[in-house]
Write a structure and sequence with these properties.
This protein has about 400 residues and is α/β, with parallel strands linked by helices. Among the domains are: about 200 residues, 2-enoyl-CoA Hydratase, Chain A, domain 1, CATH 3.90.226.10; about 70 residues. It is built from 13 helices and 10 strands. The strands form 2 sheets. The chain has a 6-stranded mixed beta sheet, sandwiched between helices. A 4-stranded mixed beta sheet has the order 4-6-8-9. β2, α1 and β3 form a beta-alpha-beta unit. α1 packs parallel to α3 and α6 crosses α7. It is elongated and about 210 Å long. It starts with 8 loop residues before the first strand and ends with a helix.
Length: about 400
């Protein structure tokens, strides 16, 4: 993995071997300064031998792929300074010399503006996919120079002479669809699908034998300017190099591909690479690894099942304990409720007894009062009778006295 960090470039490495290299000067639309070129040369040099990188994708941050050379920093600030200009020029060759024969597949993902000098690394990447909305332009003619830095050469080699002449001399813009029609990019898709399509191609390349892919890339590049005999010799030597590179890791792509197709009927070369091509391993070795992996998976599954059973038992025990606790709680609640009811009944009985006592007391008091009243009444009646008797006696005495008095009078 690449651990170094950069100011003008952002490097992101996926676990599957795909590495993203993003031009990270969005405020300048990713225009290329001398510092940017130095960093890009360093990044590509390191990634070329990085074992965790199998495919490199170049793209730009923000709305631009790259606005070409930074006119201020690359041109004006190096004018009259031959050493700085030479250093910047040498570093900028990552776009051409480095990418043209790079050891690993490279994809240019053109997400926006691709101007002037950016044509170089777009064309020199092995593959290019553009957004339909991308804007291409050879603007050099508009500000007083021709498309230099090998741009004119790459454009005339890639496009038809008519198209190359037209766009280089007019400075007109064209979009991703037109770029695909002219062969400057492999295909053009809507911006929303750009990343998805780029990854799809990258993952397809990962499935190929990397040594064969490297040799094929170099063969297509190198034989473009060779005559018949030179090309034949180069291709034979390149095939021998592939065998040598494969042998160094105990593999033979040619023998493996033939065996799987003719003897085992395991794949169809028209539709897919042979099994194990991406890793550079035979299907037998892959099969052994799969068996070992399956065995490990079985052990893990068995352990997981046992652990699951234990967990289930514990869970069941916990559930049982919870149920028992709930029942006990319900019983406790029932007991408390019964106790409360009993207590209430006792309170009611006590209150009833108190009321009964009070009632009895009231009745007893009433009886006593009644008796007293009767006694008083009887006493009053007795008194009245006595008074009557006394009055009668008094009356009798008075009558007797009167009779005596009358008798006395008569005697006189």
């Amino acid at each position: 993995m690449l651990k170094k960090s950069y100011k003008c470039v952002k490097v992101e490495q996926q676990k599957d071997g795909i590495t993203w290299v993003t031009f990270n000067r969005p405020e300048k639309r990713n225009a290329m300064s001398p510092a940017f070129h130095i960093e890009m040369m360093d990044v590509l040099t390191r990634l070329e031998t990085d074992p965790d990188t199998k495919v490199v994708i170049l793209t730009g941050a923000g709305t631009a792929y790259s606005a070409g050379q930074d006119l201020k920093e690359y041109f004006r600030e190096t004018d009259g300074k031959p050493e700085k200009k030479a250093q910047a020029g040498a570093a900028s060759r990552w776009r051409s010399d480095k990418l043209w024969m790079y050891s690993k597949p490279t994809i240019a993902m053109v997400n926006g503006f691709c101007i002037g000098g950016a044509f170089t690394h777009c064309i020199c990447s092995d593959f290019a996919i553009a957004a339909n909305e991308a804007v291409f332009c050879l603007s050099e003619v508009n500000w007083g120079i021709l498309p230099g830095g090998m741009v004119s050469k790459f454009v005339s080699d890639t496009m038809s002479p008519r198209d190359a002449m037209f766009y280089a001399c007019t400075g007109r813009t064209f979009d991703g669809k037109k770029a695909a029609q002219m062969g400057m990019v492999n295909l053009s898709v809507p911006l929303k699908q750009l990343r998805k399509e780029t990854l799809k191609l990258a993952k397809e390349l990962l499935e190929k034998n990397q040594n064969v892919l490297r040799g094929t890339k170099h063969a297509i590049r190198a034989t473009q300017n060779m005559d018949w005999n030179a090309a034949a010799d180069y291709l034979a030597a390149k095939q021998a190099e592939i065998k040598m590179r494969d042998a160094s890791r105990g593999h033979d792509s040619y023998a493996e591909g033939i065996r799987q197709f003719i003897d085992e009927k395991k794949y169809k070369p028209v539709f897919s690479p042979y099994i194990g091509a991406g890793e550079g391993k035979s299907d037998e070795e892959d099969g052994a690894k799969k068996k070992a992996a399956a065995a490990r998976a079985t052990i893990k599954t068995t352990r997981a099942k046992k652990a699951a059973k234990k967990t289930a038992k514990k869970t069941a025990a916990k559930k049982t304990a919870k149920k028992a606790a709930k029942k006990a709680a319900k019983k406790t609640v029932a007991k408390k409720s019964a106790a409360k009811k009993t207590a209430k009944k006792a309170v009611r009985k006590t209150a009833a007894k108190k009321v009964a006592k009070k009632t009895v007391a009231k009745k007893s008091a009433a009886k006593k009062t009644a008796k007293k009243a009767v006694r008083k009444t009887v006493a009053k009646k007795g008194a009245k009778k006595g008074a009557k008797k006394t009055a009668k006696k008094t009356a009798k005495k008075t009558v007797a006295r009167k009779k005596v008095a009358k008798k006395a009078v008569r005697r006189r």
